[in-house]
């Protein structure tokens, strides 16, 4: 029990040492003391880093929803599990106690079962941030179906790619969704996506906006009438520790998105443990993570982590700028939020607004503030610390990824002293290492390296859906025997880690991971485009923005630049989603290429960053003259 909650720096070091010296004992005890199991494990962990095979809690049997809900009913039945804060502040907030959550999830689980959804089936969820999203996620887990939540900002194309990749049988969506002053036609997007898929048998519909939709008899089904008649209790399926819990897609630097697979027991233990410690959650606290459930942060730290700890978690449907830029602070005041977890891009955008927006609100309830999704720059760190945390709340800069399942490097509030821009120390069980390009471990400090982890932890993803080889190639091949994160980092003299950003062709824009390849594919679909290259460049609010270098088939086509710019961005929007639109497009006569035909993105990145002359060694290029030409006309 004592290791579950870390309360002093001394204890942290003790627990950390224990966790890396005797990981099996450490993770065994945590699992044993804090969860309910139908059957205990034969072995805590079995793994092979070369083959990327991980089995945690071998042969244990459980259901994660028993741990998220049923386990709390005796003592926390009347405690609020979810506070729903709608997009429109004039619409009343809604509250669901743990008992009510049990009923709602049971009803949804029974409806899914009645609709023929079985253990192991894939269910796509394309919903706005409304309570039904949480209910459907948990209902899938209750009956053993594998949920694949797709961020409701993705386009029909992106949606169909993801449906096809996992052969989903059912999709759950809504008529529409609210987003600030706009509505999003979710059902219409699903209809478009389904023109390019053939595995979906049923579309289950939540009513949210009451807008008109195209209703296809025999395929589309309104959920409400079914829920009204559904039984209010439901049996939880007995799941093996390693049965998949969910698939969540993340962008790769090449090719189609990767369906990261997380399994049941290890994920459960890891997110519960990290939630408890990273947010210092105490029994009556109100916790709020602003991330959309379409991303891993929403899975692990809006739903699973908090509910596993019997916490009260806020579900926010809106955006930080609606109806004005005080919305976050207003919600914190309204619900007396104690822990607040958001992304640097949101902080930067709010820091640009009048200071009264934040100062007008009473935020004394706050105890811990957190940051996730991208490096938090020093200025944003101080603004967040000074104006939101009021210089008295520890700011935890949490580093992790879809692949890690939960937070892996972060300060523990009231335990680890924080340092701006440093994620700080590894959590128990995590062994980070920095590797140089020659695959040697970097021993000293202040040297930049590739951030790897050299021992598995329970929350590590198990595979890429349908493509285990890609999982091995992406994460376990470059530095054999280690998990390679794709991020660069450095370590200071006391062992704190500072994450410097991606070292591959993934670009983080407003906290969203975007691979360059799919964006280039979308641009290249334009009939006038011969080829293109996309790189990131620093942006005040988004962290990074996208810069496209585009070669047209005929030079004469350049005259119509404005239209081209719009059309290219429209293509990107259709193929991927609005989040992947380019901020800048430069039409060029060629791209810098090596003799083997590879585009030298390093040079394009420098040009996009405003560099005019220092491009390093360009002698290996077949067309070195192009560098000057492009840089002269850089935007
Ligand atoms: O580059 C790192 C960045 O976000 C990437 C993971 O993105 P995703 O899988 O979408 O998960 C985001 C939420 C966990 C990482 O490879 N990143 C995430 N958190 C931080 C970060 N970069 C710096 N500091 C962080 N705290």
UniProtKB/TrEMBL annotation:
Keywords: Acetylation, ATP-binding, Ligase, Nucleotide-binding
Span of domain AMP-binding enzyme C-terminal: 519-598
SUPFAM superfamilies cross-referenced by the UniProt entry: Acetyl-CoA synthetase-like
Keyword Aminoacyl-tRNA synthetase: no
PROSITE patterns linked to this entry: AMP_BINDING
Superkingdom of origin: Bacteria
GO molecular function, one term: acetate-CoA ligase activity
GO biological process, alphabetically ordered: acetyl-CoA biosynthetic process from acetate
Sequence ranges assigned to domain AMP-dependent synthetase/ligase in this UniProt record: 70-462
Presence of the UniProt keyword Acetylation in the record: yes
EC number: 6.2.1.1
The Acetyl-coenzyme A synthetase N-terminal domain, residue ranges: 12-68
Cited PANTHER family: ACETYL-COENZYME A SYNTHETASE, ACETYL-COENZYME A SYNTHETASE 1
Protein family per UniProt: Belongs to the ATP-dependent AMP-binding enzyme family.
Protein name: Acetate--CoA ligase
Species for this entry: Fermentimonas caenicola
């Amino acid at each position: 029990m004592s290791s579950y909650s870390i309360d002093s720096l001394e204890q942290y070091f003790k627990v950390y040492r224990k966790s890396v010296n005797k990981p099996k004992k450490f993770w065994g005890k945590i699992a044993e003391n804090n969860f309910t199991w139908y059957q205990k494990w034969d072995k805590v962990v079995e793994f092979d880093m070369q083959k990327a095979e991980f089995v945690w809690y071998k042969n244990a049997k459980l259901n994660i929803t028993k741990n998220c809900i049923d386990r709390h009913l005796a003592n926390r039945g009347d405690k609020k599990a979810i506070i729903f804060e709608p997009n429109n502040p004039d619409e009343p907030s809604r509250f669901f106690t743990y008992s009510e959550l049990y009923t709602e999830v049971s009803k949804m689980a029974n409806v899914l079962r009645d609709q023929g959804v079985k253990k192991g089936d894939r269910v796509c969820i394309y919903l706005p941030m409304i309570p039904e999203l949480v209910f459907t996620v948990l209902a899938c887990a209750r009956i053993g179906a594998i949920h694949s939540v797709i961020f409701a900002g993705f386009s029909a194309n992106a949606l169909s790619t993801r449906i096809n990749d996992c052969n989903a049988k059912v999709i759950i969506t809504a008529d529409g969704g609210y987003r600030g002053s706009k509505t999003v036609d979710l059902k219409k997007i699903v209809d478009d996506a389904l023109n390019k898929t053939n595995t979906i048998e049923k579309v289950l519909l939540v009513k949210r906006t009451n807008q008109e939709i195209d209703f296809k008899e025999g395929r589309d089904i309104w959920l409400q009438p079914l829920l009204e008649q559904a039984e209010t209790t439901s049996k939880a399926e007995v799941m093996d520790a390693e049965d998949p819990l969910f698939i969540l897609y993340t962008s790769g630097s090449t090719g189609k998105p990767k369906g990261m697979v997380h399994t049941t027991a290890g994920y459960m233990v890891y997110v519960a443990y990290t939630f408890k410690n990273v947010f210092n959650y105490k029994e009556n606290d109100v916790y709020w993570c602003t991330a959309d459930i379409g991303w891993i942060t929403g899975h692990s730290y809006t739903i699973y982590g908090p509910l596993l700890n019997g916490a009260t978690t806020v579900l926010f449907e809106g955006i930080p700028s609606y109806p004005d830029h005080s919305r976050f602070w207003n919600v914190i005041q309204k619900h007396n939020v104690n822990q607040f977890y958001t992304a640097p891009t949101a902080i930067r955008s709010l820091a640009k607004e009048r200071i009264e927006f934040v100062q007008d609100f009473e935020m004394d309830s706050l105890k811990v503030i957190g940051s996730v999704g991208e490096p938090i720059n020093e200025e944003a760190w101080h603004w967040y610390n000074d104006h939101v945390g009021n210089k008295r709340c520890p700011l935890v800069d949490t580093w992790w990824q879809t692949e890690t399942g939960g937070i892996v490097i972060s300060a523990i509030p009231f335990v680890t002293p924080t340092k701006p821009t440093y994620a700080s120390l590894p959590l128990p069980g995590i062994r980070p290492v920095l590797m140089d390009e020659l695959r040697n471990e970097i021993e000293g400090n202040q040297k930049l390296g590739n951030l790897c982890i050299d021992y598995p932890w329970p929350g590590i993803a198990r595979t890429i859906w349908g493509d285990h080889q890609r999982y091995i190639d992406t994460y376990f091949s470059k530095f054999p025997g280690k998990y390679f994160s794709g991020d660069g980092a450095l370590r200071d003299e006391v062992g704190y880690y500072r994450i410097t950003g991606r070292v591959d062709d993934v670009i983080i824009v407003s906290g969203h991971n975007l691979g360059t390849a799919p964006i280039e594919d979308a641009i290249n679909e334009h009939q006038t485009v011969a080829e293109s290259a996309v790189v990131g460049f620093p942006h005040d609010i988004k962290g990074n923005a996208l810069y496209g270098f585009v070669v047209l088939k005929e030079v004469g086509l350049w005259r119509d630049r404005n239209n081209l710019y719009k059309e290219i961005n429209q293509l990107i929007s259709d193929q991927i989603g609005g989040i992947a639109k380019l901020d800048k497009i430069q039409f060029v006569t060629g791209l810098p290429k090596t003799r083997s035909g590879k585009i030298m993105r390093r040079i394009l990145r420098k040009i996009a960053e405003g560099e005019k002359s220092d491009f390093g060694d360009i002698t290996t290029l077949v067309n070195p003259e192009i560098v000057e030409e492009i840089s002269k006309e850089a935007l």
